[in-house]
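[Q] Does anyone have a clean structure-token version of this?
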Amino acid sequence: MSGSRLTTALQGGVFAIPDDGRIAVFRPRADMDLSALPKDRVQVIQGFRPDYDVFTAQGYDTQVAPTGEFAAALVCVPRAKAEARALVAEAAALTGGMVIVDGQKVDGVESLLKECRRTGEVGEVLSKAHGKLFRATGDYSAWAADPKGTEIAGGFVTAPGIFSADAVDEGSAALAAALPEKLPKRIADLGAGWGYLSAELQKHDGVEELHLIEAEYAALECARRNVTDPRARFHWADALHFTPEEPFDAVVTNPPFHQSRTADPALGRGFIAAAAAMLKPSGRLWLVANRHLPYEAETRARFREVQEIHSTGRFKILTAAKPVAARGVTR
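[A] Here you go.
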């Protein structure tokens, strides 16, 4: 997909990269082929931990933010429009105004192409594999993200592209309202995002340690600002593979169910399995999900006790206790 467009563009002369200087590649997904670019000159800019780990394992210089000077930049279009615009602005600033943009139609590349034309100049456009690749030049500084973040209702700070960046998620609010007054001592917020659930958890009696586990670096940085309680511990990690130093008493989670624009219930089921792996044998899980997501079978396979404790019509709140299996290991 993206890799084939990039290779075609370079081999076909749609654009040429400079002979010298480093190349910043913003937000490539783990399955993107960057072999058309000279690896020793590439710096991958990626804050999503699973993708960060893939490119690091492939030998790329991988960072959460660009470091140093660059002769060229490639932006791989993310799903969120605000984030895409901010990345174009950042990339153009790094290179003095020129940036290569590559993305899928389902992720909004055509809309971004129109905006780039209105704001600056666009060269030849390559359409291939349900996406587009083009070169944009100009002043895109008006699109830049506010380095201080965006403040939303409740005084929370968010950033472009992270989940529920404009307001508190309804599902998370429903889960927070359904929790008991007293919670166990050592608790984890799995997929903590910008920290709303953790900010609510810290208000409950009994909590002595609060662990925020989040794969998106930008979201976790917002969480550090939103949850300043000294009991909080922050982990930039893939929730599906995180292993705590010692098991938790409880886990709360509002698991994601999209890796693209198509719902993927397997992701939420993975969160349930991961939660079971993190808990003590006496541990408890609280989970919120859209009503249509089929999580009950996975939850019953991983826990001895499962109950739906609340419903809002759109969402269901499940609680589960006494994990029986974790990543293939019986407790």
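[Q] Thanks! Anything notable?
[A] The chain has two domains: 2-143, 150-330.
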